[in-house]
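Below is one protein, fold included:
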Amino acid sequence: MASFLSRLGRFSFRRRWLVALLWVVLLVGTGVLAGRAPAAPPNDFSMPGTEAQQAYDLLEERFPELNADGATARVVFRAEDGKVTDPEAKKAVQEAARELGNNPQVARITDPYTTRSVSKDGSTAYAQVSYRVPSSKLEARSVTALQDTAEQARSQELTVEVAGNAVSEVAAGGHSSEALGLAVAALVLVITFGSLLAAGLPLLTAVLGVGIGALAIRVLAEPLGLGSTTTGLATMIGLAVGIDYALFVVSRYRAELARGRSREEAAGHAVGTAGSAVVFAGLTVVIALAGLCVVGIPMLTQMGLAAAGTVVIAVLIAGTLIPALLGICGRRIAPSRPRRRGKDKDGLPRPSMGVRWARFVVRRPVAVLLGGVALLGVIAVPAVSLKMGLPGDESKPVSTTQRRAYDLVAEGFGPGFNGPLTVVVQADDGGSAQAAAQSVARQIGGRKDVAVVGQPRLSESGDTAVLNVVPATAPPSPETADLVHALRAPALASGSDARVLVAGTTAMNVDVSQKLSDALIPYLALVVGLAFLLLIVVFRSLLVPLKAALGFLLSVLAGLGAVVAVFQWGWLASLFGIAEPGPVMSMMPIFMVGVVFGLAMDYEVFLVTRMREAYVHGQSPSDSVISGFEHSARVVTAAAVIMISVFASFMGSDEQMLKTIGFGLAIAVLFDAFVVRMALVPAVLALLGRSAWHLPRWLDRLVPDLDVEGERLEREPGGPTATGLEAPYDGGSASVGRGPDCVVETAGSRVGPGSGH
């Protein structure tokens, strides 16, 4: 692997202008194709296999006039003085309803005074607007007409607010998260490299990779059915890993220059060593993202595959475009220089902070290990009380019209009116559903957790009926979820000879949460299992991959604990701009598992491969840990800070979903990079000693030796061990031989060809 990538790096360095031109042509070509491609199709919000989806499909078949999948809006009117039934207020309400009905995309609009949608005290009323098309296909003029009508109806005497998915897209607005993340990344890179040009390369290539990925998604949107939301995750992940991967290759290139290599050899060696780590780190991220397919939710599958595609592009750029640009920059990219540090009491240069920390951990591994595990364990405690749901209007800021409409309905009618359930009754064997629906309605009406049961409505065929059920509790409450399960119990339909299905936004949320919960363990087993096998190949060890997986579990549990504490319990809610604490977004746990696992393995591969490289080249286990930190800690820290800043910037969004994802990923990466990888990993490796790198003989014969650490590169003509340059690591007790049959000897060990290490 290292030899192949090294040759690729040297080729890209020599043919720098050709390689750069090919990437520019690819960018321009995808841009031209994207400009001619049709718009992305609507997001597929279907949830195959759920009861709510079955109910929606049945409604679409038997009640096409209801437009079950169409966008909806609820226009809420409240009289500030008097009642909405007063002549003047009633006139304004009915005039607004007529105006909304003139829109060609509106299928129907209810009159509050004929549908009894007026509160008992007469202060509040609402009109329900149903559209012929889903929210993703609403024309801009339809949304504008809805907003304008509400604005015109407002007066000092009448408050008008609008809720529903017809206005959700508009409320989301724009977000400059990428720009903020790039600004922080640029600052970190300049501090890390001390050079504007060296810092600019990772930024340039990351933006290029994200641009190609986003344009490719646009090109493939129609043939592959990729929804419009797939670009968001791809941009977030592609930007983060693109900067990190380029950072590692450029940093290794400058280090190789400092060791005395020529620029072409340095580029080849950087791609062969750091590039090998990039390839395997990228593979773990791709496995984690592509594994989202097992969940069975189309939108999640699309997001995962699109993001995995941008990661592949980032890996290809790191192995080809980065060495090409290094060649173009020439001497303007200088070798890395030791930072000026003070001297210790013996007059020797003071070691870097990374080295001092690694030595501390190696001296006190048990204390560091127990302290780190205890810290993450305490933070993970809130995860035990995790409650999942999908954010609705109740989670939006009070400054939005959706939230104000939600509150007006809850105050005027009751909290359950914000999340009515749709009960579909289908008669067995094509019989009449009227009697069955009436029987079901009577049973539901007798429940204490039900506020209102509507009259059944029969289909034209007469074998299916639909009725609305209003819970007595708010949509996100556990009592409402219990009601959904109770309405689906076989006992309800047993006495009516009918099939009973429950739909509605609340029911769909319950189904999605359950589906994600059921898929979490299989997904975790698949992703961790495949990555475990991959890491065995990378590190040629059983204990190191096992340690990596256990450390990841600690990071994820601590991240979930922090998410629960902030978003569900409300700790520091005002600091993070959380309008209303509540259940954690259903997709968050499985999303965090996938993304954080891939990114956590990035740092594991980058940091531990450098330790294994030192060990293979002759250093003792303890010295190899310190050497790995000496060469990688600064770069890994910079990469983690960049990743955290990209994710944290999404917390500025007004959307609860983006805010939760940004916080969860940022805090989990923080725990993983600075507690697990920087503290627990060296502590465990120091305790394990040589056994950390042991691979049973029978497995050693089965596992291919891909030479990720670049041992063969050191024996190639022009390498430091062949030319008399300094050995790749100093400070160890290694005696380094020369030539193709090089054997590295240390006290009590022999590392070299055929040694099994």
